[in-house]
Design goal:
0% of the residues lie in helices and 58% in strands. By secondary structure, it is mostly beta strands.
Length: 121
């Protein structure tokens, strides 16, 4: 059974930093895309950052220049370094991973349970 475990969330003052980690386990095939999403109270879930198997990245406009996504393929782990945090970054952050076969077929989309990030003003 595939599991994604996030860690690193917490309470931080505006301007501070946090580093989120997402450790995957139970992977049978290969992890291609990984990403971080967030959901604030009363709002829809949105993609914050995305990284492909080749290392290509995309970011939500509001976090560009402040957040950096990275991955360690040997450990099937993804990270999100968040700097210059703002109160509007407050949300539950979820890790996402897409599992593909060697033939390039999507075999599963997996989500973590989420980690709370709270930024005080």
């Amino acid at each position: 059974q595939v599991q994604l475990a996030e860690s690193g969330g917490g309470l931080v003052q505006a301007g501070g930093s946090l580093r989120l980690s997402c450790v995957t386990s139970g992977i049978i095939f290969r992890i291609n895309d990984m990403g971080w999403y967030r959901q604030a109270p009363g709002k829809q879930r949105e993609e914050v950052a995305h990284i492909t198997a080749g290392g290509g990245t995309n970011y939500l406009d509001s976090v560009k220049g402040r957040f950096t996504i990275s991955r360690d393929d040997a450990e099937n782990t993804a990270f999100l370094q968040m700097n210059s945090l703002k109160p509007e970054d407050t949300a539950i952050y979820y890790c996402y991973a897409a599992e593909y076969s060697a033939a390039g077929l999507l075999r599963g989309e997996h989500w973590g349970q989420g980690t709370q990030v709270t930024v005080s003003s």
